[in-house]
Amino acid sequence: EPLRSGQLVGGVVAPGANAVPATGYLANHAGLARAAHAGNIGVIPDRDGTLRRIPIQTWFEGRSYPTLALALLQCCSGAQPPATERVMRVPFARSWDAYSGASAADVLAGRIAPEQVAGKLVLVGSSALSVGDRVSSPLGASTAGLLVHASLLTSLLDHQAGLAPAPWPGEWIALAFSALLALLAGYTFPRPSAASNMLLPGAAACLW
């Protein structure tokens, strides 16, 4: 049966053309129903189980819900997602060391000075509640879910500041590379020895 749990809040009435449809939800506690903003932490792993992309907007029953990183950015600056991407690749360009962090114990004990967080975007990880929020990512088989959303937030901030690298046409590069390799193979295979011909796929694999 479709999942319906918790108090669903947030979202805006919108068509579902530019959003990934959802079949249910696991929402917040009813005590947080009056929150001014809400972000979606739903993810869609690839077929091999590795998480590389996140839906920027998720659509459910006529309303569109932004992913957590976008919701955090929009609540402070009104920023919009780049282009009209339904799903955005998570760059995973930085490790934990690139982010300033604090343990839950330090926060609860009041050991974090207000100026350390004033004017900053803050993500609270589920590890603070001893919840095993781990996913498989290009960084490793067990990556904290918090780092996934931090990486996407970093990418959105780079887009907003005009610092994000231009995306390469990966599909066309792969197609051109494969076509060139097929042409080379058709030319070389009838000529040198079989042992020499093995160098071509080996070199092509290294080049790729």
What key phrases describe this protein's structure?
four-stranded mixed β-sheet; alpha/beta; 208 residues; elongated
Quaternary structure state of the chains depicted = single chain
Q: What characterizes the major β-sheet?
A: 4 strands, mixed
Q: Strand-residue fraction?
A: 5-15%
The largest sheet has its strands arranged as 2-7-6-3
Which structural class fits the helix and strand makeup?
alpha/beta
Shape assignment = elongated
Question: Uncertain segments of ≥5 residues (pLDDT<50)?
Answer: none
The percent of residues in helical segments reads 25-40%
What is the typical, i.e. mean, pLDDT? 84
Q: What Rg, in angstroms, do the CA atoms define?
A: 22 Å
What count of helical segments does DSSP give? Answer: 6
Number of strands: 10
* SSE string: EEEEEEEHEHEEHHHH
- End-to-end separation in angstroms reads 44 Å
Helix and strand topology:
Blueprint: E1 4-5, E2 12-13, E3 20-21, E4 25-26, E5 53-55, E6 57-60, E7 63-66, H1 68-77, E8 87-89, H2 104-108, E9 134-137, E10 140-144, H3 145-161, H4 170-188, H5 194-197, H6 199-207
Parallel strand pairs: 1-4, 3-6
Antiparallel strand pairs: 2-7, 5-8, 6-7, 9-10
Compose a concise summary of this entry:
With 208 residues, the chain is of the alpha/beta class. The chain has helices at 68-77, 104-108, 145-161, 170-188, 194-197, 199-207, and strands at residues 4-5, 12-13, 20-21, 25-26, 53-55, 57-60, 63-66, 87-89, 134-137, 140-144. The longest helix is centred in the C-terminal third of the chain and has 19 residues, at 170-188.
